[in-house]
């Protein structure tokens, strides 16, 4: 989710006009009472005052402004429509209910349509397309509306400045960069304390949204504005470069407040990858020779093919049943390590339930536990027992009233003992499994 900037005209108390007009130099809309065009900085008066030199913009500024205003932004609209189309498919799969529309889609629907889930990207599933598809998915209608409004505001700027080919490259690469960052920041051992949980996540929850790519566009415009701060017209200076700092800081602050459900790793990954691309990619002013245009067209087509192929893989796996439990001996090292990794994440959730009465992560953790393959029958039994214990803990916490005001309810002694017994048995299984694996 991203709060977006809007290009605005310069503030003034002048009453040179009673209604909005069009700039005679670049064609942009000029607000009522504005003495100068916010885009090309040309005066709005028909002629300069007698005896004073007119403040007409130079030829390069006029060419820049006209070219930016005249360029199409068809891929911004295409991506916007694609996001809405996928959202409608997800809503249809959720039964077209108003609850799923305004609350959120189930984890099962998100995963089916290609949401990022570390346990499915890693071995043994290797579902690599989940690095691409999440940027076209959204968890509910509000999530979609905020992100699509942000795309409608930011997308045309980037596409008009750099052209459609580079815009597509920026969108896809920064979107992937955001998902990769989200993948790398699932670190239960590092998610300790409010600041660490701003970036790192303790549970492998399904993650989706276009925010990573949108932050990537912010990163592109931020670096662009700084690189050309001495050449841009005033209206562009206020919208790009350091003018974006308040927008970036506000969004990071919102991410800190909502760190329990906002994927800040994806946001930061998109922002940094967009800034890096803007530093590397050469910007060619409108009208200059573009000998490398064919290379960007090839990259554009290649990335669009990658997106299409990723959704083909989603369709191929859409009706596939959940991974079956492995009942063989420890012949697959990756299955064992993946299982232990998920169970370690579950330990973090258990610790939060016992020490802080925090059942928020329990729901997503149950979804992850139900889908992870187990390396042997005993491991499968331990997994099922943990699912049952966590479900009981969630129900108990949500239904039991607090014993005192401002005091969270605690688990019953019986359930706490059951957790302790399970943990001892699991620790014994891990020691035996590791010994067998190293033989």
How would you concisely characterize the structure shown here?
The chain has helices at 59-70, 74-93, 98-102, 107-112, 118-121, 141-162, 164-184, 194-199, 211-227, 234-239, 245-257, 264-280, 293-317, 333-356, 362-371, 377-399, 413-437, and strands at residues 21-22, 29-30. By secondary structure, it is an all-alpha fold. It has a two-stranded antiparallel ribbon with strand order 1-2.
Write a concise keyword list for the protein shown above.
439 residues; two-stranded antiparallel sheet; 1% strand; mainly alpha; elongated; 17 helices
Mean pLDDT: 80
Radius of gyration: 27 Å
Largest sheet properties: 2 strands, antiparallel
Number of helices, counting only DSSP H or I runs of 4 residues or more: 17
Question: Stretches where pLDDT falls below 50 for ≥5 residues?
Answer: 6-18, 48-54, 321-331
Shape: elongated
Helix/strand-derived category reads mainly alpha
Main sheet: which strands, in order across? Answer: 1-2
Percent of residues in helical segments? 55-70%
**Would you list the SSEs in sequence order as H and E?**
EEHHHHHHHHHHHHHHHHH
Strand content: under 5%
Please report the distance between the alpha carbons of the first and last residues: 49 Å
Number of strands: 2
Q: Could you characterize what this model shows?
A:
By secondary structure, the protein is an all-alpha fold. Helix content is 58%, strand content 1%. The protein contains 17 helices and two strands. It has helices at 59-70, 74-93, 98-102, 107-112, 118-121, 141-162, 164-184, 194-199, 211-227, 234-239, 245-257, 264-280, 293-317, 333-356, 362-371, 377-399, 413-437, and strands at 21-22, 29-30. Strands 1-2 form a two-stranded antiparallel sheet. A hairpin with a 6-residue loop joins strand 1 and strand 2. The two termini are 49 Å apart.
